[in-house]
């Protein structure tokens, strides 16, 4: 199997230092004369503070408390901090979007307010994206301002999410022949908006904020006509093209650099109610419009699923399948890379898919 390219780092450590340290033992020396069975509590927290546009201070807070049955034996607090430099990749892409917005505003003055409100008045990528998504997803229940604050705080607390945003935008520019700049998908493509909104709901789900996460899922489905369960696991460099009618179930796993067209369903067969009832989509898979991939199956690396196909079995890597039920109709040039040492294994995979076990 070809080696995956390593993702670029989202930040680089610039400085590490002790910000604060304290030790308290108020009941010494008497406490050491008593017989007791000590108990210890150990807490770890992090706090992120933005110092400049591209510089953040991340503080690791560690507290250790040791007690006897009634008395405090000792308490220790240590705050270690690090100054981190923001990814230049994110800043470079944001500067490109700013430039494209300025040029577009001059070419089409009637849209200048749109460009100003959504792009030009913001000082960073996360702020602009939070604004765009909150204007689309806000309701009377959660105002635009509150929604925007939620999104901004999440981007601040999980900086790696911005790296995913960058990779998703670059995927659109590389794979969608209609896209010839970053501004257009950033402002208008609902597949991109649905995907980044899902990433917010997935963050909330992983933080056990299930109610808010499910609320966002509902809004994403209503506004963008894309239904992605917040527990689904989706990698980077994803393109949801056109996006209308895409359904992605709870247990779905999608690796990096996958392309999915409209009306695709990644779900279960309805015969299995366990958590392992959904498909796994390996990296660089392309799924055509209207395809249905159902059940606890795996779609191999760089496979292509034809439009309207129904897939109910594991698909080998580097093949094209199509039809109802789907059959192998072509093999890509990379097939030999996967099965160079074991052609029999590849033929066995093909035969099982075509004709069953």
User: Can you tell me the CATH class of the largest domain?
Assistant: Mainly Alpha
Straight-line N-to-C gap? 24 Å
Task: Domain count, please report it.
Answer: 3
Task: Write down how many β-strands occur, each being a DSSP E stretch of 2 or more residues.
Answer: 19
Mean pLDDT: 88
Q: Any low-confidence stretches, pLDDT <50, length ≥5? A: 1-10
Instruction: Estimate the helix proportion, in percent.
Output: 25-40%
Helix vs. strand class: alpha/beta
> Helix tally?
10
Enzyme class: transferase
GO biological process, one term: protein tetramerization
InterPro entries: Hexapep_transf_CS (IPR018357), LbH_SAT (IPR045304), SecB (IPR003708), SecB-like_sf (IPR035958), Ser_AcTrfase_N (IPR010493), Ser_AcTrfase_N_sf (IPR042122), Ser_O-AcTrfase (IPR005881), Serine_acetyltransferase (IPR053376)
EC number: 2.3.1.30
């Amino acid at each position: 199997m070809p080696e995956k390219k390593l993702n670029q780092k989202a930040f680089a450590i610039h400085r590490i230092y002790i910000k604060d340290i304290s030790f308290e033992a108020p009941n010494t020396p008497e406490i050491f004369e008593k017989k007791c069975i000590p108990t210890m509590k150990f807490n770890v927290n992090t706090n992120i503070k933005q110092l400049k546009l591209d510089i953040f201070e991340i503080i690791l807070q560690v507290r250790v408390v040791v007690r006897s049955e009634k008395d405090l034996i000792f308490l220790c607090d240590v705050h270690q901090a690090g100054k981190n430099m923001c990814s230049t990749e994110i800043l470079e892409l944001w500067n490109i979007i700013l430039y494209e917005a300025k040029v577009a505003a001059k070419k089409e003055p009637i849209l200048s307010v749109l460009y100003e409100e959504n792009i030009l008045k913001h000082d960073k990528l996360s702020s602009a994206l939070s604004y765009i998504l909150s204007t689309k997803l806000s309701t009377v229940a959660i105002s635009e301002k509150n929604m925007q604050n939620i999104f901004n705080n999440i981007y601040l607390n999980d900086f790696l999410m911005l790296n995913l945003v960058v990779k998703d935008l670059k995927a659109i520019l590389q794979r969608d022949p209609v896209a010839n700049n970053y501004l257009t998908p950033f402002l208008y493509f609902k597949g991109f908006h649905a995907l980044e909104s899902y990433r917010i709901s997935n963050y909330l789900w992983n933080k056990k904020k299930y109610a808010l996460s499910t609320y966002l899922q509902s809004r994403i489905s209503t506004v963008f006509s894309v239904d992605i369960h917040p527990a689904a696991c989706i990698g980077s460099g994803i393109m949801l093209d056109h996006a209308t009618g895409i359904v992605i179930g709870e247990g779905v796993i999608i690796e990096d650099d996958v392309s999915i067209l409209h009306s695709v369903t990644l779900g279960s067969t309805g015969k299995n109610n366990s958590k392992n009832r959904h498909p796994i989509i390996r990296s660089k898979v392309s799924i055509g419009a209207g395809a249905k991939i159902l059940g606890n199956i795996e779609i191999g690396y760089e496979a292509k699923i034809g439009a309207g196909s129904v897939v109910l079995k594991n698909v080998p890597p580097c093949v094209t399948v199509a039809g109802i039920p789907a059959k192998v109709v072509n093999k890509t040039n990379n097939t030999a890379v996967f099965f160079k040492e074991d052609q029999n294994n590849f033929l066995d995979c093909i035969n099982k898919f075509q004709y069953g076990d």
